[in-house]
Specification:
Elements lengths: L2 H14 L5 H22 L1 H6 L1 H4 L14 H6 L1 H4 L6 H14 L10 E4 L9 E4 L1 H15 L8 E7 L14 E7 L4 H11 L3 E4 L1 H12 L9 E4 L6 H11 L3 E7 L2 E6 L5 E3 L4 E9 L4 E8 L7 E5 L2 E5 L12 E8 L4 E4 L6 E4 L1 H11 L3 E10 L2 E8 L3 H18 L6 E6 L12 E3 L11
Parallel strand pairs: 3-4, 3-5, 5-6, 6-7, 17-20, 18-19
Antiparallel strand pairs: 1-2, 7-8, 8-9, 9-14, 10-11, 11-12, 11-13, 13-14, 15-16, 17-18
Helix pairs in contact: 1-8, 10-11, 12-13
Protein name: Adenylate cyclase
Length: 446
């Protein structure tokens, strides 16, 4: 990879793209969007046809354009991408890479990978070498403590490696890929030998590393720890921070782009210098929304007015860091994992956001070490608990809080079944709050 390109985007992100006001940021976004859309309309047949009635009148305001989802993107993959990549070829190559764990092959000079398929179907993502350099430079600018010329050994715990993640190998900064499918003992030895300065991984694995550290199985002293890929729950965040005696940072990265990163105060800010965010509110009063994203840096696989399946909660208070970028209170989960309740007095259904369930569990007892809550059907909830204390006592406290939550919205009380907590970190994303309901509608909000 072109290291000059990486450095260029690092310095642009860290030192040049500074915005004192929201107005400055929005002016910058409008210029970038108009330039980007000129390229997209010219090179992407799908977008040219999809927006054909709007092209001649496009003024840089994306809100007037229709929205797409993963389904439309995958159905129109061949005409949407600008590199003439065939969907079937890309899928088979990416799938073969996952089977062999060799992620180096490219197609027409383009790297590719598969999304985890958390929402039920796997997506394909494409990225060119130039875009990889942009990504690396931007990520390093937002994540590296200190500056680019310090020595860093970055331990990356991932479900699948990709050319994107191993592209900065040089004398000063190196990525070291840890395959989540490898044996734990191999991770332990590699960590002790490597002594990484930065650790990046899913919170379920970061928690496991903290347990190893507490048990003296490993002894590492990273200067920064970053959570990725899964929803970061407070129960994991507090434990990891306690063991390593430092603030746990977070990155919101998906197949669709590098969407958010924490500032020095630990607040998660959307990366609005590279992505424009529009909000589809589920509950405007509480600041709960689904993001509609437009990335004005990706050209191989354009992402324009793309509805994610994530639930975000915006922060009501400004961040002390002074950034005009949208601040998030938290990433709440996915739309698929909204819980549904039946009204006592009618056949209406009401939505319970993951944060409602999370708060009920955590408020119930400070003896809860780990948990997972699964809605099996409208009237059956399974709760897996790992506690430090009397299990039966904690069960009753949790049951009482859950009943209280359902009653507060005048819902029929479901059965709450308690099961042992036996989940182990793996390559599958851990969701502490999960719905198995076939249909999840978020148009009936409480």
């Amino acid at each position: 990879m072109n290291k000059i390109e990486i450095m260029k985007h690092y310095f642009k992100t860290k030192y040049l793209r500074k915005f004192k006001t929201r107005k400055q940021l929005e002016h910058y976004q409008k210029i970038q969007i108009k330039r980007h859309m000129a390229f997209v309309f010219k090179h992407s047949a799908f977008y040219r046809e999809f927006y054909q009635a709007k092209i001649t009148h496009f003024d840089g305001n994306l809100e007037h354009l229709p929205i797409i989802s993963k389904r439309e993107m995958m159905e129109n993959f061949n005409t949407l991408n600008t590199a003439n990549i065939n969907k079937d070829q890309a899928y088979h190559l990416a799938l073969e890479a996952e089977k062999t764990r060799d992620f180096s092959p490219k197609l027409n000079g383009i790297s590719m990978g598969l999304s985890s398929g958390t929402s039920g179907n796997r997506g394909i993502f494409l990225i060119s070498d130039k875009e990889s350099a942009k990504w690396v430079g931007t990520v390093l600018a937002k994540l590296l403590p200190g500056h680019l010329f310090e020595h860093h050994k970055i331990a990356f715990f991932l479900r699948a490696n990709n050319n994107l993640y191993s592209s900065t190998e040089n004398g000063r900064i190196t990525f070291h890929y840890f395959d989540l499918l490898d044996e734990f003992i191999a991770h332990q030895k590699k960590l002790n030998d490597l002594q990484p300065t930065i650790i990046i991984g899913p919170p379920s694995f970061l928690r496991l590393l903290a347990e190893w550290q507490e048990q003296k199985i490993i002894n590492v002293s990273p200067s920064k720890i970053v959570s990725v890929a899964e929803v970061l729950e407070d129960i994991d965040k507090y434990y990891i921070e306690k063991i390593y005696n430092q603030k746990l940072h977070q990155v919101y990265q998906s197949t669709e782009g590098f969407l958010a990163a924490t500032c020095s105060h630990g607040t998660l800010h959307m990366n609005e210098d590279i992505v424009m965010i529009h909000k589809e509110y589920l509950d405007e009063e509480k600041g709960i929304f689904v993001p509609i994203i437009s990335d004005f840096t990706r050209t191989t696989q354009p992402i324009i007015r793309y509805r994610l399946n994530d639930i975000l909660i915006e922060s009501k208070a400004p961040c002390p860091c002074g950034s005009p970028f949208l601040a998030l209170q938290r990433i709440d989960g996915r739309c698929d994992d909204l819980f549904l309740g039946l009204k006592n007095t009618s056949t209406d259904r009401c939505t319970l956001f993951p944060d409602f369930i999370r708060r009920a569990i955590m408020f119930a007892s400070d003896k809860i070490v780990e948990y997972k809550v699964i809605q099996v059907d409208m009237l059956k909830i399974n709760i897996h608990l790992k506690v430090n204390g009397q299990l039966e006592e904690v069960k009753e406290e949790v049951r009482a809080e859950m009943v209280k939550l359902w009653k507060s919205y005048e819902l029929i009380i479901p059965s709450f079944s308690f099961l042992p907590y036996d989940l182990k970190p793996s390559d599958r994303k851990l969701k502490r709050i999960e719905s198995l309901l076939k249909e999840n509608h978020h148009d009936q909000n409480v």
